[in-house]
Amino acid sequence: MSSRTRGRGAAVQAAAPAAARMVVEPAGLRRRLASMLYESLLLMGVLALLFMVPWLVLGIVFGVTPPGWLAWLHVTGALGAYFVWYWRRGGQTLAMQTWRLCIVDAGSGKLPDLRQCVLRYLLAWPSLGLCGVGLLWALIDRDRQFLHDRLTGTCIVLLPGKVGTPR
Q1: DSSP 8-state symbol, 145
Q2: What is the pLDDT of residues 59-115, one digit of tens each?
Q3: Is this prediction's pTM over 0.70?
Q4: Sign of torsion, CA 141 143 146 150?
Q5: Which one of 16, 77, 103, 148 is CB 3.0 to 4.6 Å from 127, fit for a cystine?
Q6: CB proximity list for 147: less than 8 A, separation 6 or greater
Q7: 84 neighbors 114 (Cβ within 8 angstroms)
Q8: How many CB atoms lie within 10 A of CB 120?
Q9: How many CB atoms lie within 10 A of CB 117?
Q10: Cα–Cα nearest to 80, from 52, 43, 105, 48
């Protein structure tokens, strides 16, 4: 094999991983907010299964009424398990799959690690709870990211759709 041919083969191999990369763009603010609204509807079903069923069993079968703080702890833990599991599994919750959104590490473009997912979940509570200040942050952020995404080093991107489907 001549040096000229060997050089050309190396260039093709080096270019192959770059060509295989998926090109994505940051998700728009309206799409992310619509996904959050849809997610809130889906969470009713998640909470019915993970929260109401166990509490009804405790109350009806065993006649036990746990304290209110335990209910809030249970809701927070159940929702945290739901979000962290989906974000770690594929970067998308059920609603995010519908809207073709994915959470990635802002630096590497890979799925966020466990620390980022847990921190994102915990920071999203005050981001939403304090009059939506973390969501309003996106209006002044240079990349239009929510505050909890900015603080955790994550980014929500729009995945490419199938050919012929609307954006």
Answers
A1: -
A2: 999 999 889 999 999 999 999 999 999 999 999 999 999 999 999 999 999 999 999
A3: yes
A4: negative
A5: 148
A6: 123, 127, 133, 134, 135, 137, 138, 141
A7: yes
A8: 22
A9: 22
A10: 43
